[in-house]
Write a sequence for this structure.
């Protein structure tokens, strides 16, 4: 079993929230406009982010891999969502290890550490650590749930989801298939999305479906 991680930090949470504010700033008509480009470049320079080879994404100064908008889309601010991948696990589908592939892809990301002797339990521990950090900052989650992993289905392989409201932002901590490598790995990801204060939030029974439909489906944000 192999896992690679770059644990989420309080700093990156603040940066993700700031990036969604930048992406939705009414004074920036488009990232293609001069004002939009300059504002985004200033954000990158201020925080030490850089362009990444991961599917048109960015890396924070600590190494978290960030997408703005849909994870397969333009890395410029879209006014939709920001995504921070911070832990990736090789689940050894069909008993065949993709450890070398994981090392070749995520092992070269700055700030990431490979753990060849750790697996799903470490992935879940990283998720719990991020959940504790979000709880300390935003209070108890408005919804939290687990559901069976369709690729495994054993009780200790449930996928975990939690949702917090931070003002007019929603923060969703999720486990899903890593899109960088054709969904052959599992990942922990933190998603930040704009949402009005009167936006109806999903409960535990619908949280994973809400995440899949609203945040994964066709790149459409909630």
């Amino acid at each position: 079993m192999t896992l690679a991680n770059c644990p989420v930090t309080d700093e990156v949470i603040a940066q993700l929230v700031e990036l969604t504010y930048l992406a939705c700033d009414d004074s920036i008509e488009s990232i293609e406009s001069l004002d939009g480009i300059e504002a985004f470049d200033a954000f990158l320079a201020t925080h030490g982010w850089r362009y990444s080879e991961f599917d048109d994404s960015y890396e924070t100064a600590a190494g978290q891999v960030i997408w703005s908008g849909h994870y397969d889309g333009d890395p410029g601010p879209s006014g939709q969502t920001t995504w921070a991948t911070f832990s990736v696990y090789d689940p050894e589908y069909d008993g065949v290890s993709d450890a070398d592939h994981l090392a070749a892809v995520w092992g070269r990301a700055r700030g990431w550490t490979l753990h060849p002797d750790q697996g799903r339990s470490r992935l879940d521990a990283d998720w719990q650590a991020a959940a504790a950090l979000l709880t300390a900052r935003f209070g108890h989650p408005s919804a939290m749930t687990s559901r069976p992993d369709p690729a495994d289905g054993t009780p200790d392989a449930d996928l975990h989801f939690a949702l917090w409201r931070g003002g007019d932002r929603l923060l969703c901590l999720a486990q899903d298939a890593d899109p960088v490598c054709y969904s052959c790995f599992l990942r922990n990801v933190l998603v930040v999305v704009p949402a009005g204060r009167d936006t109806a939030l999903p409960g535990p029974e619908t949280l994973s479906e809400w995440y899949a439909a609203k945040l994964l489906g066709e790149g459409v944000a909630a």
Observations:
- The CA atoms of residues 25 and 154 lie 44 Å apart.
